[in-house]
Amino acid sequence: MNEDHNSELEAAKISNLMTRFKGLHPDTVSFEPGDSILIEGNANSYVYVIVSGRVDMLKLSKETSQHMQIDSFGAGDLIGLTSFWTKQPSFLQSKARTVVTCLRFNATDFEKLVNADAVLREAIHQLFISNLSARYRRMISLNVEVAELSERLEHEHQQLKQAMSELQQTRNRLIHQEKLATLGQLIAGIAHEINNPCAALTHSVECLSKSVPSLLELDSTQENFELEAQLLQAGIDCPYWSAEETRNRMDQIAKANPDLKRSLVRRLSQLNKETFAQIESKVGLKNPNRINQLLDCFEIGTALRSTRIASSRIQALVVSLKNYGKQDQEEWQLLDLRDGLRDTLTILNNRLRQYTLDLKLDPIEPTYCIGGELNQVWTNLLVNACQATPKGGTVAITSHQDGTHIIFTITDSGPGISPELFDKIFEANFTTKKTKSDFGLGLGLAISKEIIEKHGGSILASNAPEGGARFTVRIPVEKP
Amino acid sequence: MKKIYILCVDDEPEVLLAVEQNIADLEDTFPILTAESTAEARTLAKQITSEGNQLGLVLCDHVMPGENGVDFLIELDKEDAFNNTRKVLVTGQAGLDATVKAVNEGRLNHYIAKPWKAEDLVAIAKDQLTQFVIRSKMNPLPYMMCLDAEKLAEYIRTDGSVTDR
Amino acid sequence: MNFINKKTISVALGIAGLLLPQFIGFEGLEPAGQLALGIFLMAGIFWICEPIPIFATSLLIILLQVFLLSEKGLFAGSLLESGYTPQSYKDFYGTMASPIIILFLGGFSLAASAVKFGLDRTLTRFLLKPFGSKPQFVCLGLMVSTAVLSAFMSNTATTAMMITVVLPIIAQLKEGDPFKKVVALSIPIGANIGGIATPIGTPPNAIALAALRGQGIDIAFSTWMMLAVPLVVIMLILAWRILLFLFPPATDEFKIQLDAKINTSPAAIISYIVFGLTVILWVTEKLHGISSSVIAFLPIAALPALSVLDKKDIRGFSWEVLWLVAGGISLGLSLQHTGLASWIIDQVNWSSLGSLGLLIVFGLVAYGVANLISNTVSATILVPLAVGLGVSGAAGADFNMGISIVTIGVVVSLSMILPISTPPNAIAMSTSVIESKDMAKAGIVVGVFGFLITLGFSLLYWPLFIK
Fold this sequence. Notes:
The complex is a heterotrimer. Chain A is α+β, with helices and mostly antiparallel strands. Chain A has helices at residues 2-20, 81-86, 107-116, 118-216, 225-237, 243-256, 262-269, 273-282, 288-324, 337-347, 349-352, 371-388, 444-454; strands spanning 27-31, 36-38, 47-52, 55-60, 67-73, 78-79, 93-96, 100-105, 333-335, 356-361, 367-369, 394-402, 405-412, 458-463, 469-476. In chain A, strands 10-12-13-15-14 form a five-stranded mixed beta sheet, with helices on one face. In chain A, strands 1-8-3-6 form a four-stranded antiparallel beta sheet. In chain A, a hairpin with a 6-residue loop joins strand 4 and strand 5 (67-73). In chain A, helix 12 runs antiparallel to helix 13 (444-454). By secondary structure, chain B is an alpha/beta fold. The longest helix of chain B is centred in the C-terminal third of the chain and has 18 residues, at 118-135. Chain B is globular, with a radius of gyration of 15 Å. By secondary structure, chain C is mainly alpha-helical. Among the domains of chain C are: 1-92; 99-320, no CATH class. Chain C is 71% helix and 0% strand. Chain C contains 23 helices and no strands. Chain C has helices at residues 6-23, 31-49, 54-69, 76-81, 89-94, 99-116, 119-128, 135-152, 155-172, 179-194, 203-214, 221-246, 266-283, 285-288, 292-305, 311-315, 319-337, 340-346, 354-372, 375-392, 401-413, 423-429, 436-461. The interface between A and B is large, with 41 and 37 residues.
C-alpha cells in the first residue's frame, strides 16, 4: 500500500528527528500478538505511533456480540489520536496482530513535541494530516464498497426469494397433483361401491314398474286380497337368503313338487317358511295364475326392501365421502381421530374388500388436528398396506393413547421393509414398486410425513414381529 | 338330456338377486345356480360337471372378498370341462389391466358394466348361451325357442347338426 | 343315481324283445324267422323309445344280422340244418352302398355345395320375387320356395335356412297378427310336403324306392317326380288355403328385403353348373336311360375333384342319415328272406279288408306312427309288411303292392301334427309365434286332406305308372 509505504517513511523521519531533538522521551512500547493497545469504551491518554508491526482495529457488534475488524494499521500510523484529542472513551479496540513496537506520547510529551521545533512540528503535522487523509480516503472507498455490496446482496436476496417462491409453488403443485391422482383412483373405487346399490335400485325399479301395474289390475273385491297385503309385507321384512340357503330351499321345494317349473321353484324359494306354508295351504301350488299374482306381491315387497337397503348404503357412503372430502379445509379442530380413519376405510372399502381387516381402535381423547389432511395420511398408509400385501392377506389397525400422544399403527401381512429403507421410504418419489405406481404419484409417504410433522407428531416405519411392514403414527393431543 | 347351467357369482346378495331375477325367463331351459364367492362358485361348477351336466355361462362380479372374478375366470378356463363355458364379467369396476388379463388369459367373452339394463343382460346371456350351444356342437333344437333362433337356424343349415329323420 | 329311468327300461325292453322269440316257439316260424323277429322287435323298441340315437339302432341291426343271420354268422350251421340258406354278409353291408344310398349321397354333395356358396339363399330370393308383397302371396311364395329347395336338399336344412329368411318378416309384423303364425307354419309344411317331390327329397322316399327295387319295380327319378309332383302341387295350394283360412292375416301389404347377391367366385359357378347338370340328367332319366344312381356319382366325384368341396365339407355330410336308411333297408332284407314278413301277415286275415281297406289301414298306421316317431323308421317298419302282404298274396289279387309302398312313403311325410313329428316342425316352434295347438290344428287339417288326396292318387293316378 502506498500509504503504508509513506507512513513508514514518515515514521523513519520522525525517529530520525527524535534523535536530534533531545529532551523528549517518548516511551517505546512493544506488544505481543493478541495484546490490546486500546480497549473500546475506555478513556485514553496516549497517542501511539507504530514503528513496526501490525495492529487490527476492531469494533464490538451489538447484534452478534463479536468483534468485527474495521481496519488495520502499520508502521507510521497513529493510534488513539481521536480519543486522545477529544478526551472521549475509545471508539475502537486495537489489538496487536504481530509483535508491535510503538512510540507512546503522553499529553505533556505530545504538547512539547508539537510546540518544540518548527521543523519537527511541520513533520508531525504532515504526519497527522497524511494519516487522517488516508483514513478519510479509506472511509470513502469503504462506503462505496459497502453500498455496492449491499446492492449486490439485495439483488441476490431477490433472486433467492423468487427461487424460494418457485420451489414452494412446485411443491404445492406436486402435492396437489398427488391429491388429484389419489382422488381419481378413489373415485373409481367409490363408483363401484355406489354401482352395486345402484344396480339393485335399477332392478328394483324395473321390477316395481312391471309388477305394480298388474297388481292394480287385480280384482280388489276378491275376498282374500288380504293375502296379497300379507305377502307384500313378508317381502319387505324378508331377509336376503344366502346362495346356499336358496339352493337348499329350491331342492326341497323341487323334491316335494317335481312338476313345478324351475323358474317358479326359484321364486317360491325366496319366501320364508311361514309364508310358503300359508300359500301352500290357502292357495295350493296347482294354480299358477294365482301363485304368480301372490309372488308378484311378494317381489314388490322385496323390491322395496332392496330399495331401502340400497339407498341407505348410498347414503352412508355419501356421508363418509362428505367427511372425507373436507380435505381442503385447512382448519384446526378438536376431533376423534378414529372417525376420520373410519371414513377413509369406508371410502377405500372397494380396495380393502380383498383383505381381512383387523381393527382394534381403543378409545382416545379428541385431538387437535386438520382432519382432512390426516385423512390423506390414512389413505396413503392403507393403500400402501394393500399394495404390499398379497390378496387375502390381513391389514391390522390399532389406536391407543399414551399420555399426551395418540398412537396409531397400521400393519400389513406383506413381506415387510428391509431395515436400511426405514428412513429412505419417506423421501419423495421413493418407491419399491417396479412399475409405475397404481395409486397416487409416489409422494404419499413424503406428504404423510410432512402432514404428521405439521401436527407436531412423528411417523415411523418398522417391521412387525410377526412379519409385514408397520407404520406407527404419533400425534400429540394438544395443538403444537 | 344333459342340462346346461348358468352360474351367477356376486358377493352382494341384492346384486345377485337382481341378476337371477333378470334372467329368470331362461331358468326353465337353463337352470341357474348362484354363489356368493368364487370358492362357492368353484364347488358348484365341479358339482355340475360331476352330475354329467354342463356349465354354459358364468356371470361373475370382479371385486369380491378373497379371490377376484378375473382370477376365477382364468382358473376356470384352464380346466377342460369349462373350456367352452362362456365367461362374462359383471362389474362396476375392474381396472383396464385386470380386464385385459381376463380377455387374454381367461378368454373373457363379455363385459357388463354395473348398473346394467335388464334387457341388455338378458340379450347378452342369450347370445352367449347361443355361442355355447354352437361351439359345444350340441343339438340346438331344445334351445331354439329360448335363444337366438336365427343364429341356431344358420348353424343347423351349415353344420347339419339336425337332420331329417 | 337312479337306474330305473326311461333309458334303462327301454334298453331292457329291447333286449327282451331280442331274446324272447328265441325261447318262445312261434308256430310256423323257422329259427331264422325267430332270430329276425328278435332283431325286428328290438329295433322297433329302440327306434320308438330312442334309448340310443336311431341311426345307432340301424347300425346295431346290421351288426346283429351279420352275426346272427349271415352265412359267416354264429348260427350259419344250425340255420342251414333247419332248411334256411343264410344270406351273404355282403348283402347286409351292401345296403350301405346300395344305389339308393349313393343317390342320396349325390343329393348330399349337391346340398353341401349349395349351402357353401349360398345357392339356397339366392334361389329363395329368386323364387320369392314373383310373389310380390301381398301377405297371402308371400305365404304361397314361401311355401313354394321351401318345397322346391327341400325337394333337393334335406327338409331340415331347408327349414333352417328359410327360418332365417322369415324371422325378420315376423319381427316386422304387428303384435298379435295371425299372419305371423301363417308365416311360421308355412315353412315346415312347405318343407315336409316338398320332400315328397323327388326320390332324394327325404329319407322315407329311399326306403320306399329300395323296397320297390327289391321287388323288381324300378322307378326312374323322373317317374317318381311324375307320381309325386302333381300331388305336391295340389297339397301346397291346399295347405296354403288352409293356413290362410285358419289364421286370416290382418295386414294388407308389407315389404320383404330381397337383396339377392349371387356368389360369382369360380368355385361357386362350378357348383351351380354341376348342380344344374345333375338335376337335368336326373329328370331326363327316361330320355337317356342312365340310372339316377349312376348319375348321382357325378356330383359325388366331380365336386371334390374340382375343389368345390373339401374334406371338411365331406365330413359335414349327414352320414348318420345314410346309415339310418341302410339299416332300414337291411332289416327289410331279412324280413323278406326269413319269411318273417309273410308270417306276420299270416297272423291276420287281411282279405276281409279288401284292397282299399288295406291301403287305408297301412296309410293310417303310417301316418299315426310317423307323427310320433321318425318318418324313416315308420316307413322302415311298415314297408316290409306291405311287401310281405304283396308277396304272400294274402291280400288278394287286386292288392297293388307297389302303390301301397309309395303310399306309405308319401303319407309319412304328411305327418306334421306335433313339434316332435319332424325336425322342421321343431325348428318352426323356435320362432315363438306358434303354439303347439296352432301346429296341431294346421297339421291335422293338412294331414287329413293330404291323406284323402293321396288315397285318391293311389286309386286313380298312380296305377297309370305302377301296374
